[in-house]
């Protein structure tokens, strides 16, 4: 709002006329005595506009700016709090020696799809080259805080249609760097199997993102890949939202609570998924 030539009244200097108006400064002529004031602060304490309509419009502008500033300040505080929580989370991970990507995603073959929800364990596959060729892969990051995500896609389907069939917590006695047979067993209590309808809604690439190539969706080979702890919490949160049955929802909620406790995550501050399909 340009205030040049507006007449004002100052509590000390009396009547004057605004002769210049910059972003944060107004210049007032008090009968050839020139004074500069901070804009808009001076209108709150010292200066009154003589024109009532202009004064009302200015008051409205100030009110709108105050609301905008309040919103921005709230956003800054939320971002500051989010950064603090993330710093605290990373410190907890460090103190508890928890890797930030200590979860695993399996690409199930046809036989595993038939048996996994009976056996509740998955093989990590075999080393393809080098001195350990033919031996089972060792998944060194996996600990009792880890979950195994179970995914599939059809041979004729694009990678973007890879879906999540279920997941389980790793057995509480399991340590990936000690496992010799390549099997990753499940916890007896924390297991989730999705219905076909639910699985269609749980696309893997809604969660997973290659941080160097965020829009890339490729998984051409390999039995498994590691998965971020927060992404797994997002998966659990979304599965819980899918469940219409109270008992099933509580089962997923118990899984999520347990998972967050073991991975030093704040269950009330799980961000929305931002996988490759959401970029």
Question: Can you give a write-up of this model?
Answer:
The protein is 34% helix and 23% strand. By secondary structure, the protein is of the alpha+beta class. The mean pLDDT is 91. A six-stranded mixed beta sheet has the order 7-10-9-8-6-11. Helix 5 runs antiparallel to helix 6. It is elongated, with a radius of gyration of 30 Å. The two termini are 39 Å apart. A hairpin with a 3-residue loop joins strand 1 and strand 2. The longest helix has 44 residues.
Short structural summary:
The protein has six helices and eleven strands.
What's the arrangement of secondary structure elements?
Layout: E1 7-10, E2 14-21, E3 25-30, E4 33-38, H1 41-45, E5 47-49, H2 52-95, E6 103-107, H3 110-119, E7 121-123, E8 147-152, E9 163-170, E10 183-193, H4 196-201, E11 224-227, H5 229-242, H6 246-262
Parallel strand pairs: 6-8
Antiparallel strand pairs: 1-2, 1-5, 2-3, 3-4, 6-11, 7-10, 8-9, 9-10
Helix pairs in contact: 5-6
Number of strands: 11
Helical percent range? 25-40%
Largest sheet: 6 strands, mixed
- Helix and strand pattern: EEEEHEHEHEEEEHEHH
Helical stretch count? 6
Low-confidence stretches: none
Through-space gap between termini:
39 Å
State the assembly state of the protein chains: single chain
Q: Mean pLDDT, as a whole number?
A: 91
Shape: elongated
Radius of gyration: 30 Å
- Helix and strand content put the structural class at alpha+beta
Query: How would you write the strand order of the largest sheet?
Result: 7-10-9-8-6-11
């Amino acid at each position: 709002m340009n205030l040049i030539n507006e007449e004002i009244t100052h509590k000390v200097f009396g009547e004057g006329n605004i002769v210049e108006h910059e972003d944060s400064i107004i210049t007032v002529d008090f009968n050839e005595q020139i004074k500069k004031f901070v804009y808009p602060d001076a209108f709150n304490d010292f200066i009154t506009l003589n024109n009532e309509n202009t004064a009302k419009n200015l008051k409205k502008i100030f009110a709108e700016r105050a609301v905008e500033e309040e919103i921005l300040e709230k956003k800054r505080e939320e971002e500051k709090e989010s950064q603090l929580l993330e710093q605290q989370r990373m410190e907890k991970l460090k103190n508890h020696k928890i890797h930030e990507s200590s979860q695993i995603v399996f690409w199930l073959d046809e036989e595993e799809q038939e048996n996994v929800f009976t056996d509740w364990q998955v093989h990590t596959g075999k080393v393809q080259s080098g001195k350990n060729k033919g031996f089972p892969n060792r998944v060194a990051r996996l600990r009792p805080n880890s979950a195994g995500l179970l995914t599939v896609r059809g041979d004729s389907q694009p990678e973007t249609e890879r879906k999540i069939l279920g997941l389980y917590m790793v057995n509480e006695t399991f340590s990936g760097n000690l496992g010799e047979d390549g099997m990753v067993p499940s916890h007896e209590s924390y297991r989730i199997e999705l219905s076909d309808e639910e699985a269609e809604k749980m696309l893997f690439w809604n969660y997973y993102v290659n941080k160097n190539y965020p829009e890339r969706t490729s998984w051409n080979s390999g039995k498994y890949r590691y998965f971020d702890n927060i992404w797994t919490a997002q998966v659990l949160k979304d599965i819980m939202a899918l469940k219409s049955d109270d008992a099933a929802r509580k089962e997923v909620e118990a899984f999520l609570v347990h998972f967050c406790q073991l991975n030093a995550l704040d269950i009330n501050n799980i961000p929305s998924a931002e996988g490759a399909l959401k970029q």
